[in-house]
Amino acid sequence: MQRIRLRYTKRGRLRFTSHRDFQRAFERALRRAEVPMAYSAGFTPHPKVSYANAAPTGTGSEAEFLEIALVEVCDPDKLRELLDESLPAGLDIIDAVEARTSGLADRLTASVWELRLDGVRPEEAGHAVAAFLAAEAVEVERRTKNGLRTFDARDAVAALEVARPQPDRPGDGPCAILRLVVRHVTPAVRPDDVLSGLRAVADLAPPVPAAVTRLAQGLFDEESGTVTDPLAPDREAARPAPPMAAGPAAAKAPEGAGTA
Amino acid sequence: MPAESVFPQLEALLPHVQKPIQYVGGELNSTVKPWDSTDVRWALMYPDAYEVGLPNQGVMILYEVLNEREGVLAERTYSVWPDLEELMREHNVPQFTVDSHRPVGAFDVFGLSFSTELGYTNMLTALDLAGIPLAARDRTVDHPIVLAGGHAAFNPEPIAEFIDCAVIGDGEQAVLEITEIIRAWKAEGRPGGREEVLFRLAKTGGVYVPGFYDVEYLPDGRIARVVPNKSGVPWRVSKHTVMDLDEWPYPKQPLVPLAETVHERMSVEIFRGCTRGCRFCQAGMITRPVRERSITGIGEMVEKGLKATGFEEVGLLSLSSADHSEIGDIAKGLADRYEEDKVGLSLPSTRVDAFNVDLANELTRNGRRSGLTFAPEGGSERLRKVINKMVSEEDLIRTVSTAYGNGWRQVKLYFMCGLPTETDEDVLQIGDMAVKVIAEGRKVSGQNDIRCTVSIGGFVPKPHTPFQWAPQLGAEETDARLEKLRDKIRGDKKYGRSIGFRYHDGKPGIVEGLLSRGDRRVGAVIRAVYEDGGRFDGWREHFSYDRWMACAEKTLPELGVDVAWYTTRERTYEEVLPWDHLDSGLDKDWLWEDWQDALDETEVEDCRWTPCFDCGVCPQMDTEIQIGPTGKKLLPLTVVK
């Protein structure tokens, strides 16, 4: 049995896809593309797909990961192309490697997020960020299945900064872009929670909902304060010889972590 | 109205609503055409929530038929839930299509498909959100033509005030003919405005324009007559019938939603129409004659559809799927073809007398034998004669006996309550039937874990059926009868616990009855309910019987009628029915004879297998029965790797 790890996106309006919606769409894409999937045993066999750490409904993502098990050996690049074609635009498969190592999930310890706050001036956001980072702990509340829950949103945040304003946005009013690196902890701290935290410490209240995108996900590197490509070890294991020239464009190391 | 996408405004609202994915479009196999490359543009609506509307075959077919044509564009819109409606009103976002998020008001035609009358209030919500005046007479040349279709459109009188026109029957060819008329009118510079284009449509005899007809009433409230008020407008409007289904293999590219919907499968309509002649069944009466898709046509649609969608279940749809002349070969052929691919087959609407275990075995080759569903509809032999559902108790017991003997453990039985001539005794016999089914199951299987679920709906008399004259049973009487049955089942020590009992109370049926057999005066009730906040009447959590009754009391008495007049009142032969000028092909005298036969408990055969009994449809509509067998088989598909 061959296992393939895929990196996929939730872009544009398809960021409103819930994880369950994505699962159905992906499994149908597998059937359309006639991927030789391995199936579970039992009365209702299911294709073997493991999903890791899905982004919340409504947030975009450039870095979602899953793993599939096949009964025939396939070329990862061809499979990537085939599946990408089979999925609606916006749910794009942008990287594929054969699994050569264990523990993909263990290598997903932090995420890099971009938060676009339309109608918020960068200076205003900068003050809020400074106050947030200066705090020891920032208590926030979130409604969960078990009622309102209070937890600290500060500790999991490894980095938070206001990105340089984009010059190509004339006349659209102010807009602040935050870059956030957050460690995966329990209970999970989501970008929404950090926004609640900014409101708690500095009354930052964006007039429209923030556009949130996960840029990268991977092993958190304490030294650089950013994350590394979780598929890199598989790629290296597959190609022990001197590193090849550039792989698929989308497979480039995650960027945008910045330095906090 | 400008046709620009409203998505930027909508997008800001989506994080605040439930299941935002239903509003974003982008479904696999959806079509987005450049606006300016087209000259006739349709907004198609299924007036219910996306999860119900998206899988609707009618809308899917018309969407594809229209978009295949050069210069024609069709986009879809569905009812928005109250949470989004509130935000849209607050932020001035109009009713939009999910394909390109264009305002519905910018289209040439706003076509709504009504499977049920309970979508009427949702239509008013959509019109209002779209900025289209609710009343047709208040619209200008720049507003879309509001067109109703679907089964409920066979009596569009209750919504006559709100629609510009209605089309009855099959839509495939009709939408194209309408498109051409609108195209020509637009190309000429829209001469004569709205009235002129509606007149051109009405003149064809296939489009009903309520505004061109006056209804005159008798002092007692009944209709005196319905008369065209404009010369050139035909006295009656005909239904449309598509002949040769193999020429119309739609949907070819079924939509695959990202959101979860009520039917997650690839549906293929294996035939249209039904002549079994069940007297309560409007669908069977108005879709005559039977037209089968050929076994090879079905095979091709399944193959292409699965490739295009990736669905793992195929539903072979029709009004009584086991009646297809080659259903055995179809099921076996498909089961053979897709055995390896883990594709399941389902056959909704299977009659007890058409069921056979070979067929059922083919359908469940890969899967579990959990449940079988049959619809005897009437609890007693006598009542089944009245409704012309010729299923004997022996048939049923023999069938379930075979099923239990072959590994099935659960049987679900559908019935109706409130059928004409029904007494308490008829309904109580439903309990006896369930007991016999379980006793037989225990005997045959040698096991005790046999279940039988009895599911009961209230009967609503429908236009264009032999029961169109029948009195509907009142809500309280319906409830009382069902309570007696419930007590009887619960009181059965030996079998009661093996019988599941599901029923709906009689109240929604009264509202459905009011809307089904209503006339133009009922429009005032619909408007009042909408204005009072009525939405999503097909949903138990939104439906309010009290609101409907309160609004009816406010509006109907001054018109000399009331809810009972429309529902529980029996009609006589002479009465002009509100839908008499809409021609379903059925001869009114034949319907009346069939109604009398019902009262005499006399059955009618199926004209597919016996001589014609003169229902009138084929000669009136110039159609004919199209059935096999073709003698062809589905060959295995060659696998190309």
Automatic annotation (TrEMBL), chain A:
Residues 246-260 have a biased composition (Low complexity). It comes from the Bacteria. Residues 221-260 are annotated as: Disordered. Pfam families: DUF2344 (PF10105). InterPro entries: DUF2344. Residues 3-191 form the DUF2344 domain. Coiled coil: none annotated. This is Radical SAM protein.
From TrEMBL, chain B:
PROSITE patterns: RADICAL_SAM. InterPro entries: CHP03960_rSAM (IPR023862), Elp3/MiaA/NifB-like_rSAM (IPR006638), Radical_SAM_N2 (IPR045784), rSAM (IPR007197), rSAM_horseshoe (IPR023404), rSAM_sf (IPR058240). It holds the Pfam family Radical_SAM. Residues 260-497 form the Radical SAM core domain. One of its GO terms (molecular function) is catalytic activity. This is Fe-S oxidoreductase.
